[in-house]
Design a protein that fits this description.
Order of helices and strands: HHEEEHHEEEEEHH
Largest sheet: 8 strands, antiparallel
Structural class: alpha+beta
Strand content: 25-35%
Radius of gyration: 17 Å
Helix content: 25-40%
Length: 170
Amino acid sequence: MRVALAAWLGAIVLGLATAPALALSCMFLPFHAPGERFGTKELVAHVEVLEVCPDRTMDVRIVRVFHGREERPLVTVDAAPAIGWDKPRQWGFTPFKSGTQWVIVMLRGGEGHALWQPQLCRAYLKVLGSNAEGYVSQLGKREHVALDALALSRSRGPQSDLIGQIFAQS
């Protein structure tokens, strides 16, 4: 009995020790709340996962950039915190794996890290054909949005109200 209890407590402590400190204070956000503006250091992109590596980085192909700049078609994304906390599953989807496509808000990686890191507490959108699905503008409601609407909102000018434009077009 004591051995089982010690093993159970050890697993919990080990799990917490490997969890990123940022996630412990995470305030969950929808993909893009009404009136919110993406920052100048953020990259919002439609990506296809090519490979999830053992070190929890992902090699992705950038299909389309909705906000920010990235001119390379293939980049490495440090997904260790997201995979460690199983964020795709928390947002209601299967985990990151080869062949899956996502619309993700990412930030530049730090020194010695991959180029980009997904924002840990922000909802991801799962790409299904020509649409993306997920918690777009609020956490309590799963929504579908056309990828073309996301692309059109980018071409309308810098930092316009993305969600307002998307739903005005639907």
